[in-house]
Specification:
heterotrimer; A mainly alpha (227); B mainly alpha (249); C mainly alpha (75); A: 227 residues; mainly alpha; 82% helix; 0% strand; B: 249 residues; Four Helix Bundle (Hemerythrin (Met), subunit A); globular
């Protein structure tokens, strides 16, 4: 009984990463969105460095959130279309584990590139120097939360036609605590305070999400993907 | 223990016929208590020293906010009961509860905004309470939208229940986060209600209004559930008889 | 208990705050009424639809067509 304990986590993690790599162009979409939209901010607001510096931290967080939201749909959509989702549902593994693998892959594909690109955006939006490291840390942890929470929304809307838009509406309220603490991490640093407490709160959210979101998504998939 | 009453509760027809008798009393109770409370609060209670007469909006704003939040938990509980015991009626209650809760959240937001104008000079202030209420409204709208998006009633109910439960877990997190966020940026918070330190002459009508709103909520939930029962059970014999009788009259 | 205001005109004006208070009350009452009335309207509409379906089915049956009733699946 102890011989095989293949939870499916790493199998599906690897699978999704390989599939994303094959369609690199598609996978790069959120990252491109993230960078391009950062041009909209000075155009819409002001090119003045001082004023940009005031809003940079929050705006980068908002854009990261939106970019993640755009990509959430793709978590289950392709699998639903080609039938691999059904295969997943009838496989012997406990459903939450492969789902966690997919969500982790999603973070590697979307959240991690966003995090790594954020210093560039910080530069372009005149983010003060003190904010860069906190921005990296908060985005790294925060986008992981976003992938997890968004996955629940994706599971709830996978079989719907206009699922993407509904997904955004459903998941937005759930994202709000993440952005509050995420941008507060950077805000604290910019104010010269210790920025670890808000980061710790983000970490707590990540821990809770890792534990609960795969379960919720599994429950949702069992219901929704039969339609 | 005799669980028969619980399982009988699962019959939509039983619910429909039983509540038929309760409705007139509920209408009467809601109307009376709300009228008493409103008149008391608007005309008889003393005005606030700092805010003047505009504080009277509290008699609507606070009960609406209470019910908006309580209503979400009622909706989520109905969803949970449906998921656990697979009770159709529970899903119907959940579906009916959503628009009522959303409407009350809307009332809370609008009355809060109207109250804000004479008190703080602006209709919309991003304080913790209003922001949390707004997020609650979005949560309600999400549950409503998700149920409408599905063709299959069964899937719609279950998906809605899951979303409602996910929202339930998130509501304390959201409230606390927004509260914390607000204190970051606005150290001097003005409390809209300081209930314990309210003068009894002002507090008593508030209690009456809260009671009245609860009764109103029960009434609205029953009315909405009955309508939903008819819609989902329209192929059954008893609904068809009802329709035939209604048309004859 | 005596009324806080001296006259009905005072009650409506509320020292200048009357606009706010009464518009809040009005909006609330309208929304509450709508919440109670909308299900009743939809109920009546539904019962009429069901009655119409019954009528159509009985007409079809008496006209001697197949005994199967048309199954309409409404979302």
């Amino acid at each position: 009984m102890t011989r095989q304990f293949n939870s499916g986590f790493s199998a599906w993690l690897k699978r999704d990463l390989v599939l994303a790599y094959r369609r690199r162009g598609d996978a790069a979409g959120p990252l491109l969105f993230f960078v391009m939209v950062s041009t909209l901010i000075p155009l819409g607001l002001t090119p003045e460095s001082a004023r940009l510096a005031d809003v940079a931290a929050g705006m980068i967080w908002v854009m990261a959130l939106l970019a993640t939201l755009l990509s959430m749909d793709a978590l289950f959509a392709d699998d639903h279309r080609d039938g691999s989702l059904e295969q997943l549902l009838i496989s012997p593994q406990l459903l939450p584990m492969p789902i966690l693998g997919k969500m982790t892959a999603h973070w590697f594909i979307t959240g991690l590139p966003l995090t790594l690109a954020s210093p560039l955006l910080g530069l372009m939006l005149s983010l003060p120097a003190a904010g860069f490291v906190p921005m990296l840390c908060s985005l790294a942890v925060g986008t992981a939360c976003l992938s997890l929470i968004g996955g629940v929304g994706a599971a709830l809307t996978v079989s719907l036609r206009k699922g993407g838009l509904l997904l955004s509406l459903l998941v937005m309220p759930l994202y709000m605590p993440v952005i509050i603490f995420g941008s507060a991490t950077v805000g604290y640093a910019l104010d010269g305070l210790n920025w670890l407490p808000p980061l710790a709160a983000l970490g707590a959210m990540l821990a809770a999400s890792v534990a609960l979101c795969p379960l919720a998504a599994a429950g949702a998939l069992r219901i929704t993907s039969v339609n | 223990m005799n669980w028969q009453w619980f399982h009988r509760l699962g019959s939509p027809r039983w619910f429909y016929q039983t509540t038929e008798r309760w409705l007139p009393w509920l209408y009467l109770a809601a109307l009376t208590i709300l009228s008493v409370g409103l008149t008391w609060g608007l005309a008889f209670a003393p005005e606030d020293a700092k805010q003047g007469n505009s504080f009277r909006i509290i008699y609507i704003h606070v009960p609406a906010s209470f019910l908006a939040l309580a209503g979400y938990y009622i909706m989520a509980s109905a969803g949970a009961i449906g998921l656990i015991w697979k009770m159709k009626l529970s899903y119907m209650v959940m579906k009916a509860a959503a628009p009522i809760g959303a409407a009350l959240t809307f009332v809370a937001l609008v009355t809060g905004a109207i109250w804000g104008k004479p008190t703080w000079g602006a209709y919309w202030v991003w304080d913790a309470r209003i922001t949390s209420m707004l997020i609650l409204l979005f949560l309600y709208l999400g549950v409503i939208a998700l149920q409408y998006a599905y063709q299959s009633v069964d899937a719609a109910s279950k998906a809605g229940a899951i979303l409602a439960l996910v929202g339930t877990v998130n509501i304390p997190i959201i409230y606390k986060s927004v509260d914390w966020w607000y204190t970051l940026h606005q150290p001097a918070t003005i409390k809209l209600t300081s209930a314990p330190s309210m003068h009894p002459d002002m507090f008593q009508p508030l209690l009456v209004m809260i009671l009245g709103f609860y009764i109103f909520y029960a009434l609205a939930l029953i009315v909405g559930t009955r309508s939903e029962i008819l819609r989902r059970e329209r192929k059954t014999g008893w609904v068809r008889e009802l329709a035939a009788a209604e048309v004859r009259s | 208990m005596t009324m806080y205001f001296n006259s009905v005109a005072d009650l409506l004006a509320m020292d200048g705050h009357g606009v706010y208070v009464w518009s809040a009350v009005a909006i609330t009452l309208i929304v509450m009424a709508w919440v109670l009335v909308a299900p009743l309207i939809s109920r009546r509409q539904l019962l009429r639809d069901v009655a119409r379906d019954i009528q159509r089915e009985s007409q079809r049956q008496s006209a001697g067509s197949t005994s199967k009733t048309k199954n309409e699946e409404k979302p």
